[in-house]
Design a protein that fits this description.
The chain has two helices and eight strands; from the N terminus they run βββββαββαβ. The chain is of the alpha+beta class and about 130 residues long. It has a single domain, classed as VC0802-like (2-Layer Sandwich). Strands 1, 2, 3, 4, 5, 6, 7 and 8 form an eight-stranded mixed beta sheet that branches. Pfam families: A9CJY8-like_N, ACT_7.
Length: about 130
């Protein structure tokens, strides 16, 4: 049996990627879920959080699922996101990536998640629920 390359964990909830104005404050609803990511730039305030927490009047791309790369990953590791994105690009699956100090999170549309998991398993990645 060949060795698994990396292990990923599928998070249970659906998530949304929201765009707020660059002058907006971080809203309380953005911080209610176990996973959230907040990025502020000179152009926008971008929030990834659990879909049920997002108010209806927020500009948002919904129906994302998250695969967490089990870490922590060392900063010296090279090509992890490149490898993952290449596997999915070959299957026509788009991603949205979020990186933290310890690991990477790959957001994949819910409609594509099981095809993505199958592609990773075929390439010797382990995916757990």
């Amino acid at each position: 049996m060949s060795k698994k390359i990396l292990t990923m964990k599928l998070l249970k909830e659906k998530y949304g990627v929201c765009r707020l104005d660059k002058f907006d404050s971080i809203p309380p609803w953005a911080k209610d879920s176990d996973f959230f990511s907040i990025t502020k730039t000179s152009d926008e305030l971008s929030i990834v959080c659990a879909q049920p927490d997002i108010p209806d009047d927020i500009k948002c791309e919904k129906d994302w699922r998250i695969l967490k790369i089990q870490g922590p990953l060392d900063f010296s590791l090279i090509g992890i996101l490149a490898s993952i994105s290449t596997i999915l690009a070959q299957k026509g699956i788009s991603i949205f990536a979020v990186s933290t100090y310890d690991t990477d999170y790959i957001l994949i549309k819910d409609r594509d998640i099981y095809n993505a998991i199958e592609a990773f398993v075929d390439e010797k990645y382990e995916v757990i629920n």
